Amino acid sequence: MRRPPITWSNIDRILALADKWNMTSVMKVCEDFLLLPTTTFSLSENDPSCVWTWLIKADRLSMSSVMRKCIATIVSSKMISIRGVATTGPGSKNFDSEDPQLDKMVKEVAVSCSPNTLTSLISALIVCKDRLQASQR
Fold first, then answer.
1. Domain ranges, ordered by start, for the chain
2. What distance lies between CA 81 and its chain's CA centroid?
3. Contacts 24+ apart (CB under 8 A), 78-82
4. What pLDDT digit, counting tens, does each position of 36-73 carry?
């Protein structure tokens, strides 16, 4: 019998059961789904593929590779949002510009994740900021 595929619509339930019953092989299948190149995370809080939600879940479930993919997604989306907007003049935006969603979600990660995950996220954002500033010189 072939197992049903893991999708965004069923992964939460499957992971919850796998975690509850300590089914490591099922958790590994879910982790493999999350790490597929075709599996993309969303920045939308209401989306089942929300990168922030999955960063917190990956931290709780000790899925370090998924955490790294989530952090990379967050950093690349921040870089894209900055590069896509003028960086000088009226309406300009730079890395330090207010980003209410980023601020809110970093605070949530701060209270929900381990210090190591928070440190990794903050460090990656600092490196991103440094690279952007260097490219604007």
1. 40-135
2. 15
3. 78/102, 78/125, 78/128, 79/128, 79/131, 79/132, 82/132
4. 999 999 999 999 999 999 999 999 999 999 999 999 99
Residue 81: exposed, middle, or buried by beta-carbon count in 10 A (0-12, 13-18, 19+)?
Answer: middle
Distance CA 131, CA 112 (A): 28
Q: Are 64 and 72 in contact (CB under 8 A)?
A: no
More confident residue, 111 or 79: 111
Ramachandran angles phi, psi of 109, nearest 5°: -60, -40
Whether this prediction's pTM lies above 0.85 is answered by yes
% residues pLDDT > 70 (the chain): 88
Distance CA 125, CA 98 (A): 14
- Residue 88, pLDDT above cutoff 60: no
Residue owning tokens 């493999």:
32
Copy the structure tokens of residue 30: 């879910």
Q: Is 29:11 a contact under the CB 8 Å cutoff?
A: no
Residue 42 bridge partners (DSSP): 50
Coil/strand/helix, residue 42 = strand
